[in-house]
Amino acid sequence: MVRYADLRDPDLFTEDERDWVSRRLLDLRAHMKSPPGIGIPSRTRNSSLIIGTWNLRDFDNNKYRHGPRRRESLLYIAEIISGFDVCAIQEVNENLDPLRKVMEILGPQWDFIATDVTVGSSGNRERMAFVFDRSKVHFQNVAGEVVLPKHALLPDEQQFARTPFLVRFQAGWFHFTLCTVHIYFGSDEKNSDRFQRRVAEIKHIAEEMARRADREDENYILLGDFNIGNKMGATMDALTSAGFQLPPELFPSNVLGDKYYDQIAFRTRKDKVTFINAGAFNFTKSLYLPEHYDHYAPVLPERHRELKENGTPKSRSEDKDYYLSRWRTWQISDHLPLWVELAIDFSDEHLQHNLSAAAQQEGKPAQLEVVEEEDGTISTLVPPASDHAEVKRRRKRKSPHIPGKEKEGTARVDGKLTLGLAWKIFWFVATGKAEKVRKMREEKAKQEKESP
């Protein structure tokens, strides 16, 4: 559950702002609870796993001076991420403080793993990260950035512009490796070298992950911002030609709703993935709405607006267009979070795998598990792998200890120890009577042993 402690801090939110943000959060939460296709399914404890991927536009560098993100925006981002069990995030910037703030809002059961910054003109000093609920998703101690071997380098012996990042997790019965990417964009001109590099990056990472999945016989999920323009074409073919499986239905993942930049693709062990649902969550239907323009107009950055001398917009329609098409995308993102829900409880399948028609037909009685020997010891029995004969384990369990007859007549440990009884015991020992009784018993035992 997301923590809203900041909303109660008068140094962070005025009463009016607390009211405004609380109403927006209520709208957002109601939106998220809408049926799949509009909202996000409710998370379960054991039966399913919701995996998300989200390009959080330039989070949160503010080098283009459209921000920085408002405190309320961090609350909205945390609320949306809380709808997933694990979420891959792209475009996390060098300063991790904004992400740490989101983690603080999410609560102590949440954690993240991030890469170092990617250097170079194309890398943009970005990080990639996985945010996950530790109560549901368990880090399996394997993480790394993917570096191509020399024989598989991109044209001109290049590595990826932004290094893909893979981490191994487990949720329920499901062991899986997530590899997140932010593919080089370059150009939309199909014949250009920059477009061909985009295709090559998608093709190379898909083939490399496919090789690993086959070699290790493990479940690999490749997800993130592939900069895929549409359902058909060279960029999508580069992903699917390596044998990666996509959800049954694909969704546009940009705010405008006309591009398929983000994808979640699977190369898994046979019958190990069962799709339940998939979708893209359009937060613009509940946050930073067109009718909210008047509320936010006073805080829009002047450097990006056409204003009169008195500070009012020269054109209200153009100013509103800036608010909708640009400013709000720097507050949340120009990408929609994409998600899939998978089944992870394979209990029935595991039990059904043990069924035997022949055993059911034969109907043998229950196997013997333990046997008591003549000396009172108890042996545990196990059936060997080759036949049904019973074999005793070398290690025997001892039977329960029973006090001998010579112990009869001693004081009951569960009796109430009164002051009078304590004095009698003390006097019995102090006068030597206890020692005399002990010697008498030893002598009697010796005589019984020597008698024929």
From TrEMBL:
InterPro entries attached to this UniProt entry: Endo/exonu/phosph_ase_sf (IPR036691)
CDD domains reported in the protein's UniProt record: MnuA_DNase1-like (cd10283)
UniProt cross-references to Gene3D superfamilies, sorted A to Z: Endonuclease/exonuclease/phosphatase
Alphabetical keyword list: Endonuclease, Hydrolase, Nuclease
Coiled-coil zones: none
Hydrolase as UniProt keyword: yes
Ranges annotated as biased composition (Basic residues): 391-400
Residues covered by region (Disordered): 375-411
Top-level taxon in the UniProt lineage: Bacteria
GO molecular function (one): endonuclease activity
Protein name: Endonuclease
